């Protein structure tokens, strides 16, 4: 059983709003074992919505339409469905009651165009909408199921969870579910990951697929099975195999973040951390403190852009700054040690580099970033050369700083 | 001339990532006067991408495909285009050079699967990608234009603006354009904004539409006209009227950010800034340093979670901490003054509060945040009570700190 989703709304085509219903619906259907093969966005136009419905019903068993159920002339989904299937629109007494009740309960005047919201294609059932005037519509026709839902995200999401999923699960006698396991890596590129697991990428069930964004690569293992337990059984050996090959880089799974994992390790090991940042400008501290409970292991940080601040606040030796320059491995180490001493922490991180777009030179180009770590007196430093714009360079630097910390927390 | 956009990526169908390229592309095409009639999302599957391209070319003049240009076996857009049009894939010497150069400049080892990124359908040109290994592909075939772009949002967006729009504008002869002007506000809620401009929300051309997210409300004025000058003429009087009504809250327009506007004012007035953050954990410093050139006015910052750090590093009076508690207006002010003194800045910001989810009490609930400002010795403090999760509370705190600074920079 597979589905296609159609999202109506000219404002999405114009980029005035981001279609957040799409990701939500995709996630919910996957969890329910219903494959979504295609999402289509079309404007508030009768012909194009009709065409989208006709395209979808050529292949999909379930056609879900979001939006276009309101009272205005721009709201055309019910008309499009009726025309596509050559059905009449009829007034649905329950839908009419719903509209009337909604207006009455809010002491609002019902205008005649709201009556349109009581129309459904003949044979359709309505889906109750507890938070708006527009009922949803459910129609079984020619062995296909059509579901029309209101577009506002809070109405759409509530109705997907409370009405659509139970309804589809009733009809889903195959009972197949899709389960994914995500392995998250950093400090390694997408093609290196792919090369390492090349032989695992051709399976049909489970499948393994790589995905990357700056500073992170994920491998997603996805299994279809008739129970979550069975799916897990199919995923586990693959996960084990991948972990063996890439163990130096896999820091977490599913919803894990690097800062969350590092925080958990710091808390477990009863260690404290402090940060001294130059080019990242507080991003590392910000990420660490996004984790609730971080105040128990994060003692604090400094953002020291100027040489004076590095000397006066962190105790960096002015001779090193002069001899090696502010962007140097020596200064990264000295900043790590400096903040560790000032804050009285077990571990200090020091970051210095050139985030750009200005400030680069042939010897020290934009993207050159040194990350220093003082781990209870043991010093580490890493040279990086990142590509991209300022915020991407900052992000990759923070990712690498947290990775260096993670690696050392795992060792000890 | 109209376009269709195809976004490839199974992770979008599964709801694992939100398709942010779609809104961006829609906005950019609209501004360039190119209608986007349909957006389609399909998985990483050769047949389905091919089918999407074939569907699109039945109607659209311009077919834009996002994603699937990476080095892995999941990356299938170039193959799909070649098969759809019955063209061979050939190695493009310039694309090969680009891939090699990218790896060389970063001292990375190029693996053989990266060579795939040098393939293009015969007759295609490449579109340079300054921030990644995957070139874009531009092909004119049978009076249609095909544009393939890498999927990672920072690559996609840069290439749309820098390569695709100039290329399409060359070919666009219709000339009706859509122009939007965005007015950005903070420190005011959406319903207050809506109430203030209620009478302006019903126009057909130009239109005015509100949109809000935590800590920010925008009003978008959109006009259709046959020239940018004409559209601007239609927008200007409306913008003037709105500015008159909401001038205390409108900090910027279009792509402006609050941190960018504040930075510009600091640079213009030749003033320096330092930050002392507790509950925001470095977020304010991070946002300020996202602006290139911020090192000329941002002297540095501290993240002081503990009382000891507040006392020893910022010179906060321990008696105040004891008498009023760390989350108090007095401590916010003392942090602002402390960091101003330590860094030798003209302006100091101090933030103390409870970001949650733990640490709240009936007297001092989660979301209580004090923001202190020491503006050349003049003290201001603002009490806030924010709702939402930890990161939302941090974000709103940073937004309000920058707003307080912005207001005072405008006054002086």
Question: Can you offer a commentary on this structure?
Answer:
- The structure is a homodimer of 412-residue chains.
- Chain A is built from 14 helices and 17 strands.
- Chain A folds into three domains: 2-171, Molybdenum Cofactor Biosythetic Enzyme, Chain A (3-Layer(aba) Sandwich); 177-253, Alpha-Beta Plaits (2-Layer Sandwich), CATH 3.30.70; 258-411, CinA-like (Maf protein).
- The mean pLDDT of chain A is 92.
- The first copy, chain A, has helices at 10-13, 20-31, 46-59, 77-85, 93-105, 153-171, 190-196, 228-246, 258-269, 283-288, 307-314, 318-324, 329-343, 390-411; strands at residues 2-8, 35-42, 62-66, 89-91, 119-121, 125-127, 136-141, 144-149, 177-185, 207-213, 216-225, 250-253, 273-277, 298-304, 347-353, 368-375, 378-385.
- The two termini of chain A are 50 Å apart.
- Chain A is elongated, with a radius of gyration of 28 Å.
- Chain A has 412 residues and is an alpha/beta fold.
- In chain A, the strands form four sheets. In chain A, strands 2-1-3-8-7-6 form a six-stranded mixed sheet, with helices on both faces. In chain A, strands 14-13-15-16-17 form a five-stranded mixed sheet, with helices on both faces. Chain A has a four-stranded antiparallel sheet with strand order 10-11-9-12, sandwiched between helices.
- Chains A and B meet through α2, β2, α3, β9 and α7 of A and α1, α2, β2, α3 and α10 of B.
- β2 of chain A pairs antiparallel with β2 of chain B, so a sheet runs across the interface.
